[in-house]
Amino acid sequence: MPQRPINPLDPRWQSRSEQQQHSFFDPTPRSPQPAPQAAPPPAAPPSRGAYPPAPGYPPAPPQPGAYPQPNGYPQPNGYQQPNGAPQPNGYPQPNGYQPPPAAYPQAYAPAAPPVAPPVAPRPVSPPPAPAARPAPVAPPGIRLDAPAAPPGIRLDAPAAPPGIRLDAPGARAEPALRPETTGARIEWRQTRGDEGLDRSAAVMRRKLGKPRVLAFANPKGGVHKTTATVLAAATIGSVRGRGVLAWDDNELRGTLGLRAGSARHARTIKHLLADLMRIENLHGDALLQELDAYLRHASDGSYDVLAGEENPRFAQRLDQDTVRRVMDLLRRTHDVICVDTGNNVESVNWQTVMRTADQLVITTVPREDAAFTADWMLDVLEESGMGEMVANAVTLISCPSPGALPLLEDFKKHFATRTRAVAVVPYDPALEVGSSIEYADLQPETRQAWLRAASVMLEPFAE
């Protein structure tokens, strides 16, 4: 009777001795198999900083003679592999076959982060006190403790140019420091120290009511009569901008035409008188254009010049009627006419200018002969019925040299008793050479003195 195949998984078969365990498929008894060697323990996972090892990791190495567990996991219900080599998937293996030891990567759970010890709360400090606001710094000329500025005044306005007053009508200034932001009270204060210059310029800018004639007179020669006529016209013209003329009415070859204005032509009053009747009949722009052909102009264009004739015999033609006609013509085109009257008080043209002038200006220098001649001229005018003109006259003292002048103070006191005002202009090296007079070449102190002197001359007529 043939033998039935034996199930290798039958416990009866497995309990038999090794010599008896042969079957139909393997009739030859198996040779004793060597015991399987223990698998090496798995490598420790790489360290990850300061994390502590997970519980139960790494697993303990297997004991000698024990079988490794499948996939490294324990079997349920205490199941243990039978004696002998492990059988993968429950099938017998060929003779001498040894399965490779299982070496699976071991998974591990990340360690919990370390718990930091409790930290005591820091005491809450009070917020720092706000820093004290720095005191505002006022610009030059501004007082923060002064009364508040009047409405409409700004202190951050640009500085005024020379000769301009910010507190004059039409001027504006606004404050750079505002009281609502700084808590200070601000007052506008003029930064320029000499307010008299601003007042002088303002006087000369005003309307004069009608064209005015300023007569510069002194019978003595060398008393800066021509120089004063030119500089007065230049000063007034620089402020007013236009409408100023200097006329050389000297009957004995005056030099005003040579020292003032640009000699663009050689025409003088002689040529004007030749065409006077034709020019008198013109009006408006036509009159201005026609008369301009007979005038010379200052280099800066601030005033015009009517030059005198160089021929001494021409003085016979300057009769009273002719001088008046010329004066009336010039008043139609100019606002201020400065006349150099010459030295002969007996000449008709000199006396005619004196009677038609609005302001008499007595020029002198601090010398006795010059002062004596000026006094004598005032007496002649008073005797001629022009006492009011003498009382309203202005005495202009020009310093011919630098340094102290012993008679200056005495002359100022003396002429203050005979005329309305006394003005003093200092020495300037630009006037010493006797050549062309350029207003821009004067020293600042000289220009300021002439500004004050010219304002005194026009002050009675300023509206």
TrEMBL record:
Residues 1-157 are annotated as: Disordered. Residues 29-45, 52-73, 111-139 have a biased composition (Pro residues). Residues 212-366 form the AAA domain. It comes from Actinoplanes palleronii. Residues 74-96 have a biased composition (Low complexity). InterPro entries: AAA_dom, P-loop_NTPase, ParA/MinD_ATPase. Residues 14-23 have a biased composition (Polar residues). This is AAA domain-containing protein. Signal peptide: none annotated. It comes from the Bacteria.
